[in-house]
Write a structure and sequence with these properties.
Layout lengths: L7 H4 L4 H7 L3 E6 L4 E4 L1 H7 L15 E3 L12 H8 L3 E9 L5 E12 L5 E10 L1 H23 L3 E6 L4 E4 L1 H7 L3 H4 L13 H14 L3 E8 L5 E12 L5 E10 L1 H28 L1 H28 L5 H29 L7 E4 H12 L4 H4 L2 E5 L6 E4 L1 H18 L7 E8 L3 E7 L27 H11 L3 E6 L5 E8 L5
Parallel strand pairs: 13-15
Antiparallel strand pairs: 1-2, 1-6, 3-4, 4-5, 5-6, 7-8, 7-11, 9-10, 10-11, 12-14, 15-16, 16-18, 17-18
C-alpha cells in the first residue's frame, strides 16, 4: 500500500508516489501536527502493517525503545522532536517493537519541509532497517571471537610484517614467550633475541625471500622470556593485492626445541650404537687381526736380520741382496701399517661426513677387513667384481664400509657349516644408481626377507639383531635402498642401491 498526503508541497510533485516506491528504504511523510500523510511499501514491510492516514495516533500499535532497552516515548521520537524543535535529525538510532512482538533496530533521518510563509509544513522520515547490519556485525564479532580463541590455542606464535619484511605487529603469545614488549619487537627489534650465531644466516634468508616475494621458511634459535635459547621454526607467506603486488607478510613461529633436542640426542645415540657395533665386530676378529699382522711383521724382521748378517760379514757383493732385503721388509711393514690404518678409520667415533666417494675402493677396503684371516681358514672362495666404470656416490665412506663389513661378516658366518662356501661381492653402475651385491651359499634365512631388517630380530644365539637394522638406516639416510633376495639354489643375495653423483 502506498499513499501520498494531499499537502500542497506534495501535490505539486506529481511523480512523488512513483519516486517513493522506487526507494528500498522505508519513507513516510507527516504534516506539521505529526499526522501520517503518506508512506511507501518499504515502510509497510518495516512496520508490519499499513496504518490509516490523517490520524494523529497512528503509531499506537507498536512501541519504541532506546538502545539501552528503556522505553522511548513517541513525543521524544526523532520525527516528533524534529517537528517540535524545527530541526533536521540525521542518523538517530532506536528500536521498534511491532504488533507481533518482533523488534527491529533502525536509523531515522528526518528532513522538514516548509510552507511558503516559512512555517513547518511537515516532515519526511527515512527509516533504515538495521536488522541485517546488526546480524552481520554480530556474525563478524563471533568470527573475531572464534579467531581470537583459535589464535590463543594455537601453539604457533603469529606476526605480521610489511611488504619489505619489517615487522609491524606481533601476537600477544609471541610477546609472552619472548619477554619483549611490542615496541621492542617491531621493525628489526626481534633480532635482539636471536642467537648471535644465527643472526647473519637468518637475516640473509629473510631478505632473500622477501626480495624475491617467495615464502620464507627457516629454523633458528631465539632467547625466551626465561633467558634460555630455544630452537624455533618460522614461516611467512605474502598477501598480495589484485595486481599481484605484496601488501604484507603473515608469519608464524613455532617452538620446536623439544623436537630438535630429541633429534640431536637420537642422532648421537645412533652414532654411539654404530660405533659400538664396529667395536664389537673388531672384538670378534681381534685374534685374526693379530695373526694377520704377525705375518708381515715377522717377515720384515727376518729380512732385517738377514741384512744385518750380510753387513756384519762385510761382503761387498752382497749389497744388492741387502737392498732387496730392505725393500721387502719395507713392503711387509707397509702392508701391516695399511691394515692398522683401515682398522683405525673403521673404528673412528664421529659424526658422518657426506662427500663424493669412489664406491669400488670403499667396498674393496671393507671386504679385505671383513675377510681378514677368515677366507683362507674357512676355505671360502671369494670373488670380488668391481665395476670398471668406478661409480661415485655421495656418502660417508666409513659408514658404507660398515654396511659392507656387516653384510660380508653375516655371509661368512652363514656359510661356516656349509659344504659349499662361495662368496661373491660386486659393484654395478646403473643408470642413476650404484649397486652393491653380496651373495653367499649359506642355508638362507629362517625369517622373512623383510623381517631381517627389523631391529632386535635375530636367529643368532649371541646376536643383538641390530646389524641389518643399522645397515638399512645408513643406506636410507643417503636416499638409498637395501633389500634381500633368496637365491635360486641356496643362500641369500643382499643388495644396496645408492644414488650416483658426478665424479667431478
Amino acid at each position: 500500500m502506498s499513499s501520498i498526503a494531499p499537502s500542497e508541497n506534495w501535490t505539486q510533485a506529481p511523480d512523488s508516489k512513483r519516486l517513493l516506491e522506487t526507494l528500498s528504504v522505508a519513507v513516510y511523510v507527516t504534516d506539521e501536527q505529526g499526522r501520517l500523510t503518506g508512506y511507501n511499501g518499504a515502510a509497510v514491510r518495516l512496520w508490519g502493517r499499513a496504518p490509516s492516514l490523517f490520524i494523529r495516533d497512528w503509531w499506537t500499535s507498536w512501541r519504541l525503545f532506546r538502545l539501552d532497552g528503556t522505553d522511548l516515548p513517541f513525543e521524544l521520537c526523532p520525527m516528533a522532536l524534529a517537528i517540535r524543535e524545527g530541526r533536521s535529525i540525521r542518523g538517530e538510532e532506536a528500536i521498534m517493537e511491532r504488533a507481533d512482538g518482533s523488534r527491529v533496530p533502525f536509523l531515522a533521518f528526518v528532513e522538514l519541509f516548509h510552507q511558503s510563509d516559512g512555517t513547518v509544513g511537515g516532515a519526511v522520515n527515512t527509516l533504515v532497517d538495521l536488522t541485517e547490519a546488526r546480524q552481520s556485525a554480530l556474525a563478524l564479532r563471533e568470527r573475531d571471537e572464534h579467531y581470537r580463541h583459535v589464535v590463543d590455542l594455537n601453539p604457533q606464535l603469529l606476526w605480521v610484517s610489511d611488504a619489505r619484511g619489517s615487522v609491524i605487529d606481533v601476537g600477544g603469545r609471541w610477546l609472552a614467550a619472548t619477554g619483549l614488549d611490542r615496541s621492542q619487537a617491531l621493525g628489526d627489534g626481534w633480532l635482539s633475541i636471536c642467537h648471535p650465531d644465527d643472526v647473519p644466516r637468518i637475516s640473509e634468508v629473510r631478505q632473500r625471500a622477501f626480495a624475491a616475494g617467495k615464502p620464507f621458511d627457516a629454523e633458528y634459535r631465539v632467547r625466551t622470556a626465561k633467558g634460555e635459547y630455544h630452537w624455533v621454526h618460522s614461516r611467512a607467506f605474502p598477501r598480495r593485492d589484485s595486481h599481484g603486488a605484496i601488501i604484507c607478510w603473515y608469519g608464524t613461529t613455532e617452538d620446536i626445541d623439544t623436537r630438535v633436542r630429541a633429534e640431536l640426542k637420537r642422532n648421537q645415540l645412533a652414532i654411539e650404537i654404530r660405533h659400538a657395533t664396529r667395536v664389537n665386530a673388531m672384538g670378534q676378529i681381534a685374534g685374526m687381526l693379530a695373526h694377520e699382522l704377525s705375518q708381515p711383521l715377522a717377515a720384515a724382521a727376518n729380512y732385517v736380520d738377514g741384512c744385518e748378517r750380510l753387513v756384519s760379514a762385510g761382503a761387498k757383493a752382497a749389497s744388492d741382496n741387502i737392498f732387496q732385503g730392505l725393500h721387502q721388509a719395507r713392503r711387509q711393514i707397509d702392508h701391516a701399517a695399511d691394515i692398522v690404518s683401515r682398522l683405525r678409520l673403521f673404528m673412528r667415533n664421529q659424526a658422518p661426513k657426506e662427500q663424493p666417494t669412489r664406491l669400488n675402493q670403499a667396498v674393496a677396503d671393507a671386504v679385505q677387513l671383513a675377510t681378514v684371516g677368515n677366507a683362507n681358514r674357512m676355505g671360502i672362495s671369494l670373488a670380488l667384481d668391481l665395476d670398471p666404470r668406478d661409480p661415485v656416490v655421495c656418502v660417508d665412506a666409513v659408514e658404507i664400509q660398515q654396511v659392507v663389513f656387516n653384510l660380508v661378516r653375516n655371509a661368512i658366518e652363514a656359510m661356516e657349516d656349509q659344504p659349499m662356501r662361495h662368496l661373491h661381492v660386486a659393484t654395478l653402475m646403473q643408470q642413476d644408481a650404484a649397486q652393491i651385491m653380496i651373495r653367499d651359499t649359506g642355508p638362507g634365512s629362517a625369517m622373512g626377507l623383510d623381517e631381517m631388517f627389523e631391529p632386535f630380530l635375530t636367529t643368532k644365539p649371541t646376536g643383538l639383531g641390530l646389524g641389518l637394522a643399522i645397515c638399512r638406516r645408513i643406506v636410507e639416510r643417503y636416499r638409498g635402498r637395501i633389500w634381500a633376495e633368496a637365491n635360486g639354489d641356496r643362500g641369500i643375495t643382499m643388495r644396496a642401491s645408492l644414488p650416483l653423483v658426478d665424479a667431478e
